[in-house]
Q: What sequence folds into this?
């Protein structure tokens, strides 16, 4: 009797799960994509309490924030799309920092794939690529030999195309990449280049991905890009993304949003942009036609330790001498650094442009002052202008 009951129960469950099979949950592939970390970059000649250039330290801090997020998110893979270092021969400090951080990542047992960018690639074959220092790490996979390299795992293939000094070589390497696409796996393409002229950085050696080979993007699960320092997808492609840089290498980069991509792949791809904390850049304008009121109306309560850019607009020649840079910097004394731009009142007609070009800058400047002042003021300012130009010319001669 017991035997019959057991058979009936087995038959029930067998028929139930055969007729109503449990749907297998699709595995989500988690990838962190970051890029253009430019370790070793320094600027502004400001030294912090640890005797390190403050901007260099900012870049190390940005990288550390990503490593901390990797520990929390626990992705299946980590990818870096170029310009790990700011130079192909980085400083000892930058190398030591990178090795320390890569050791932390390596111990997480998460595969980390990184490619070389134009900043990390030697310009001649006489130098050893700096990324070679990571070759003996267990979970670090590098691509730096200026050619296509396939890095394959059970569920995904990373098609890596590092920076190539010879742009004509790129086409054959991209074709090699296309031949290795496996439709039974996820295919991740990794590039450090400009996909279209819009993404050029005006740097030495950068190359543009060929327009007629963009069709390959459609065969990829995801295309991870490096080189451009802003986050976003490229054109019509919903699977092609720049993660952007972690910090700004120029004050012309006004983006205060910097971070990395947290990518989730199942049937579709889900892109989440994770912002990190960086030193903000804040812009101000001072209207010199109403200088005192313009200064009094400045909102400077949130400038502590920030990078400040001040534009002096509608300057007259007299004001350009009266308003010293030191006075402006004193207004923003809580900022880490203050950059000042001067925009003069435009009152130069087309007719006298040739005249301006025919005289020296000093002569033109003095003539401009003469027209804007009375004789007594002019004589007073004339000596000061001549003194300043003399100092300037001496400094130029010293450099020459």
A:
């Amino acid at each position: 009797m017991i035997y019959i009951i057991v058979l009936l129960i087995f038959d029930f469950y067998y028929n139930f799960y055969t007729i109503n099979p449990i749907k297998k949950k699709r595995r989500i592939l988690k990838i962190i994509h970051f890029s253009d970390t430019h370790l070793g970059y320094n600027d502004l000649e400001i030294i912090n309490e640890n005797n390190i250039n403050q901007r260099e330290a900012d870049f190390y801090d940005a990288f550390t924030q990503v490593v901390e997020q990797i520990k929390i998110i626990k992705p299946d893979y980590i990818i870096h799309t170029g310009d790990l270092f700011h130079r192909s021969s980085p400083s000892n400090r930058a190398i030591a920092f990178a090795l320390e951080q890569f050791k932390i990542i390596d111990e997480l047992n998460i595969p980390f794939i990184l490619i070389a960018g134009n900043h990390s690639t030697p310009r001649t074959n006489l130098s050893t690529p700096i990324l070679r220092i990571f070759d003996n790490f267990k979970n670090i996979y590098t691509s730096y030999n200026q050619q296509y390299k396939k890095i394959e795992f059970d569920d995904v293939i990373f098609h890596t195309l590092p920076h190539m000094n010879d742009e004509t070589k790129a086409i054959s390497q991209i074709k090699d990449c296309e031949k290795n696409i496996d439709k039974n796996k996820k295919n991740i393409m990794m590039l450090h280049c400009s996909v279209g002229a819009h993404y050029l950085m005006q740097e030495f050696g950068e190359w543009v991905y060929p327009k007629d080979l963009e069709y390959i993007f459609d065969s990829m699960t995801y295309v991870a890009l490096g080189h451009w320092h802003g986050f976003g997808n490229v054109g019509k492609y919903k699977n092609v993304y720049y993660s952007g840089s972690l910090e700004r290498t120029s004050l012309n980069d006004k983006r205060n949003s910097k971070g990395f991509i947290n990518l989730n792949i199942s049937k579709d791809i889900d892109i989440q942009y994770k912002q990190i904390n960086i030193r903000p850049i804040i812009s101000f304008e001072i209207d010199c036609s109403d200088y005192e009121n313009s200064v009094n109306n400045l909102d400077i309560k949130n400038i502590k330790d920030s990078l400040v850019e001040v534009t002096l607009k509608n300057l007259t020649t007299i004001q350009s001498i009266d308003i010293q840079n030191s006075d402006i910097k004193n207004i923003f004394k809580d900022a880490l650094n203050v950059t000042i731009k001067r925009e003069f009142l435009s009152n130069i007609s087309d007719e006298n442009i040739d005249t301006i070009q025919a005289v020296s800058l000093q002569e033109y400047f003095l003539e401009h002052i003469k027209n804007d002042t009375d004789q007594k003021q002019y004589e007073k300012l004339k000596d000061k202008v001549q003194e300043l130009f003399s100092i300037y010319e001496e400094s130029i001669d010293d450099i020459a």
